[in-house]
Amino acid sequence: MNLNSKEGISPRELELYFGPQHLGMVGNFSITLKVEGDRILEARANPGYLHRGFEKLMEYRTWIQNFPMVCRINVVEPDSMEMVYAMAVEKIAQIEVPERAHFIRSIHLELARVASHLFGLWAYANMLGFDTVAQWAMYHRDLILDLFEELTGGRVYHIYIWPGGVRRDFPPGFKDKIVNTLHSIGGCVPDYDSTFFNNRLFYERAKGIGKLAQQQAKQWGATGQTLRATGMPYDIRKVEPYAAYDKVDWDVPTRYDGDAYSRVWVIRDEMIESVHMIFKLLDVMPEGPVYNRVPNPFKWKVPKGDAYVRVESSRGELGLYMVSNGDNKPYRVHFRTPSYPNGLIILEKLLKDASIADVGNIMISLYIVAPEIDR
Amino acid sequence: MREKTATDKKGSFLSPFKSINYLFKKPRTLRYPFEPKEPAMRYRGFHLNDWEKCTGCGNCADICPNDAIEMVEIPELECKPEQGIKNERPKLDYGRCCFCGLCVDICPAGSLRLSRDYFHIHFDIKTFVFLPKDEQTDKEHFLNSEQYSILKASLTHRKENYEGFTSDLEYSLFEPQRVPMPEVQPEERKLSFIEQVIGYSKEEAKAEASRCLECKLCEQACPAHLKISDYIKAIYENKPCESLKKIFEDNPIPSICGRICMKHCETACSLSIRGEALAVRWLKRFVVDSIKDYKTALELRADEPTGYKVAVIGAGPSGLSIAYFLTLKGYKVVVFDSLPGGGGMMRIGPPLHRLPIEAIDKDVKHIASLGVEFRFNTMVGKDILFEDILKEYDAVYLGIGTTVSRSTKVKNIDKAHLALPFLQQNKIGSGTKVCKKIIVIGGGNVAMDVAREALRLQHMQYPGEKVVTKTVSLEDWDIMPATEEEIKDAKAEGIEFNPGWGPKELEVEDDKIKGLVCVKVKSVFDKQGRFSPTFYEEKQRFLDGDMIIEAIGQSPDFSFLPKELFEKLEFTPQRKVKVDENGMTSIPKVFAGGDIVNLNLDAVTAIADAKLAAEGIHKMIIGR
User: Does residue A34 lie in a domain region?
Assistant: First the structure.
């Protein structure tokens, strides 16, 4: 706490550091709040605690060596990172991806979305004090991690979606395992609802908090559930379908109030929609190869060119702009991560006039993932 | 679009109490380590490396994004360059490893795998740097389930048979399949001497060159140590001139070698372990064929003339090579050969369908254009005396090769033809009149050449008629000295094989050959591995034939050497000319190389000998 009263600051105002060492903070990120009593006058987001220089590192590694690294930009949902990287390389190098690989990618990404949302739910419920629900979410996320482990050999960093397709086909009996796991998680939705989503405490705590109008959301670059919670059914999977998202029918869940309550409900509905989508994808998934071999990694030079690709990550639009100058390494890569506008712009705006007790509430409902901002 | 829960329910304060029934359920938390959780079958844990299979190629170290892998030399292990095996093995730094498994997907041998182990707890940070082995090569640290305890689990206390993420050729980062070489089909090619191999197109060559992993095991295996990975890379980068320059650093006769090289490199190629070796020979041929004129491409510049003169006897691969190397060093080189053109054994041996004369002349002409003086049709010992050469020149190089065909000592063998005169006559001579049923004695590459040439002659001389060419060899399929490739091609052309039979006598009636009586071979080599065939005398067989050609090996002809010099010439126990580390024989000033020196009996080894002798001659002359 900083009590020095500088010129221009009234003695009633306080500067309050929220994070990075804070119970309510999820990750290496902090906010400096200027408060008067319980009211926040101004908030300033401070990224920079987690800068690892990925974009620069990637300029020094070959096309294939970057593949195990991109996923590390985002711990919560590494798969969409792998996906954009693979898509960008495929676009510049004009690599065809086999049909089955598209389906596996979609299924994998939807599993990752559910796992990521469950992780987000854990953070949000934990922050509100709903420890029971938080523990459930963490447990159910773990069940999905078990699926990942079986498919890819890794629990958190799957290193699975690579240029040319995916790294391995489904192991025997994996389809049934996905279905069983998702059924067992889905069977708990009524419990989640009664304990959390239909809990009056949640309603009271989240309704009207961090309210964002659609116009503002668009202006400030919000995507994902932040935008969908304001009533705009904007989803890259629909707008610019990739992988196998145009192969099955599915809905974009929306809400209209643009507050924390709506955002969390959108997350809930999205998880259910994702599970349904996985079932549909599994039904129509074709047989065949899952990988078109890319050139020898020691000689691979991606032709000159650039590409912007984007996917719908669990937090919104994730984009990647990549430039190749025809060398064995990318010339430049730049990520457009959804947490960047959410964490640096919208958060600052929404925190204005909020109360200190709602900082965590607003921040986590925006689903800010600090490693994405810093990269 | 369907509207999801458009109206908000406020919910009840009481609804959470429903979850109270979870209190009576079994806890989800595992009581580790008493309730262990098995990692998945594909788990990416610590490395396993089969040291028997690992070739030490170092591809894993090259691909590692974190530099976690270092190749370390293991002195206890044997280096076998000719098989493409180095005594280096990967060492993992688990402080850096990110368990991505790229090393597994690039491992050409499939020896590197990841296990399902992931525990290592130790107070000593050095233990995190680790040389992985597997249960086959390290029984001590891989334990069965009774001896294994999870409480002691570490890098040196591992469970056996606990393989996780393994290599799969379908998903490997290298391409195991070769770009197929376009060839004239057997039915068509056996009717004439058309060159069998058509050669890669630019695109095909680039695609094939792109497979090279640059591990350089081939360079170790090549007797002449060509910079293979460099010249392959230049092909991939569309720089044929650069590629040719790299080749010429060590091999001045690439047009010949690009066709008939015994390709020790491809035997050692790491891709050949589980797939097809990189087509190094055909890629060399592609470079040579794509460049019309060596001279402008190479921009060679010889050193200042030294004023010394070197005589080379024999214009075969080793003679041509040493002439090239010494000319570049500023020597005046004169090459003597009894044949009307250069190439030596290459000129008379490999039939036209394997090595056309133009391909030989391309290399010879280039070497001649550098200032080498060729004296063809000059038989040393007859047209010019060896003593005179020795007196006149500052050094003499013997690259005479093995020019006399050996013969079996069976009854009536004088009626049979010999391989070398047969080949020579048909390649550069007037040709031979062949019969319809030919038997070739021998199982080596020369026998294959003879048989395939004979077959072509039969088809050309008796078009449309039924003709037969068969081979009979002491060696059975498993030890047949001819290369697999030659045997496959010969079979495809319809040549019959009779392996495991030895000739006993030629059956002759009215001075005409009727056939060959053979006996079944018991063994070819004795216990010491020396050639000493034994037979089942009672098991005999008659092969019908009216022409017999022997192709059972050659020996050198030293008759040009005066007696007192020949007596001075020392030989090794394998009856090879003994040379020192500079390539010099026991006669001062006289160097030797090629088939009379080495046991490989091939062109590229002859080049290697020539390279050594060129250095030796230079050292002797300039050093004195």
Answer: no
